[in-house]
Amino acid sequence: MEIVHDPKDFQKRMMQFRAEGKAIGFVPTMGALHAGHIALAERARASCDILVVSIFVNPLQFAPSEDLDKYPRTLGEDARKAEAVGVDLIFSPSPRDMYPAGFGSTVSCGAITTRLEGAARPGHFDGVTTVVLKLFNIVLPNFAVFGQKDAQQALVIRRMVEDLNIPVELIIHPTVRESDGLAMSSRNVYLTKEEREEAPLINKGLRSAYKVFCDGNCSARKIRSHVEDIYAAASFLSTEYVAVTDTFCNDISGEISCEALLSVVCRTKISGTRLIDNILLV
Ligand code: AMP
User: Fold this and answer.
1) Could you give the domains of the chain?
2) Is the CB of 173 under 6 A from ligand 1?
3) Position in ligand 1 atom list of the atom nearest CA 153
4) Which atom of ligand 1 is least distant from the CA of 30?
5) E-strand spans in the chain?
6) Which of 34, 108, 155, 211 is deepest in the core (most CB within 10 A)?
7) Per-residue pLDDT reduced to its tens digit, 64-87
8) Per-residue pLDDT reduced to its tens digit, 231-272
9) Cα separation of 274 and 148, whole Å?
10) Would you name the residues annotated as active-site residues?
């Protein structure tokens, strides 16, 4: 396995692989790899000749008040984990090489990016789609694997791929969880002991709401307040939002009659960590 930093060098190699007819699978990440990322890589490994993982903490998708500087960067350890799962190439560019002086383009995917995470983190999805399109153009993958953990991100990228006729197949992999249900995240390392102990409540709330839904209760308002009531009992978590939306991320106000997404964001009270999770109501 090799780690390549230079975008032009990397793109040249990928052009060569494509010319040879090799199938390229791609898993974009911000590094600090955990079992969730590794599951995505394993999924890709099974159906490609060349497996690429990118590791890039993308400054464009962080607001000035967010955790860009303290985001964990563990390239050596990441490389060891990637090699163990059969990754062929890690693409790990510098921010300066991705966004050289004079960089001025933005990919923006419209209304879907203004709701949920887009409302809570203005400009976040423009940063995501801009970097993902750049990465697609450098890596030239046949397919790319994203996680259901970032459900809206997956929907936004699908929007971009459809809107812009991007010839990359998208695969969405289920959320990988700790044994107590907490969704794995590179940000979980920020949690204090008390926060970590309470954090599984986030997923418990979602599963309990799913049961209420499966029992025939289809009122979006009732599902939301069911989750909010469970989270209200927490000592170390405050609820940022609980939302029931359709797959365009539009709020559902009445009965749930289509495929719906129950999304939640909680912020921990000591370390201020933002934890996101979701479940499909189908
Ligand atoms: P990140 O490094 O957090 O930007 O995530 C890179 C990719 O891994 C994204 O497609 C995420 O949705 C996915 N991912 C992150 N955490 C998980 C998880 N616990 N289970 C499945 N996929 C995940």
Assistant:
1) 2-173 (3.40.50.620), 186-281 (3.30.1300.10)
2) yes
3) 12
4) 2
5) 2-4, 24-29, 50-55, 89-91, 143-147, 169-173, 237-245, 260-268, 274-281
6) 155
7) 999 999 999 999 999 999 999 999
8) 999 999 999 999 999 999 999 999 999 999 999 999 999 999
9) 17
10) 37
